[in-house]
């Protein structure tokens, strides 16, 4: 445990203090690959990583069940969530192990309740994977867009600056039965980010662009949380 923590701190330092000024994507991905704390819910488990200021979430990291039908995992979303969380000292949560339900579909799912307690009042960035429909990044503002204010702008700006094709509310506005919607309906600030498969593929050129764009965006969101009000 101690050794893992030491390595974790060393990797976080590598990401943040890269001499070139460009964070090390390999170190960032390695941060995301390290285990969190496994917890068990009534319909499946999750992993958490402690922090504050922002919460990064990946509810579809493993296979899940929506209305009785099996749905494929969005593998890599959990690694990105934990990489971003650890690089900026934020909290993270991702599904882990067999699931009998879908946190991003079932109302009152324990995953969302646990997420809400991780870093109370911190804004939430909920990560997903989509197929390529012409954009690499879709930022979904949810049913109460005011509660995505201050979150979607850095995400869109950094994605566009990285050269990624970026859309707002298309194809996924996150308005209905999403984690983002559940949080916003409870008054919590939240935003949904969908990235194409390529953005999670370590062999694809879009992957480092997406990782670094999201890192910069989450750094800006975290800085706004920690700064003067
Ligand atoms: Zn998803």
Automatic annotation (TrEMBL):
State the superkingdom: Bacteria
Protein's name according to its UniProt entry: N-formylglutamate amidohydrolase
């Amino acid at each position: 445990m101690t050794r893992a923590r030491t390595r974790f701190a060393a990797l976080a330092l590598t990401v943040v203090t890269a001499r070139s000024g460009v964070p090390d994507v390999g170190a960032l991905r390695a941060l995301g690959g390290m285990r969190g704390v496994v917890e068990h819910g009534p319909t499946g488990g999750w992993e958490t990583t402690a922090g504050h200021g922002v919460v990064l979430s990946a509810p579809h990291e493993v296979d899940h069940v929506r209305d009785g039908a099996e749905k494929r995992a969005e593998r890599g979303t959990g690694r990105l969530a934990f990489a971003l969380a650890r690089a900026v000292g934020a909290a993270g949560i991702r599904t882990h192990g067999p699931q009998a339900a879908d946190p991003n579909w079932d109302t009152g799912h324990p995953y969302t309740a646990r997420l809400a307690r991780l870093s109370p009042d911190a804004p939430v960035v909920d990560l997903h994977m989509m197929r390529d429909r012409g954009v690499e990044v879709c930022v979904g503002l949810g049913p109460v867009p005011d509660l995505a204010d201050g979150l979607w702008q850095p995400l869109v700006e950094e994605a566009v600056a990285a050269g990624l094709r970026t859309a707002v509310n298309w194809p996924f506005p996150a308005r209905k039965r999403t984690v983002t919607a559940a949080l916003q309906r409870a008054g919590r600030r939240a935003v949904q980010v969908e990235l194409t498969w390529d953005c999670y593929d370590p062999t694809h050129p879009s992957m480092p662009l997406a990782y670094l764009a999201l890192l910069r965006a989450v750094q800006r969101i975290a800085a706004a949380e920690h700064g003067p009000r």
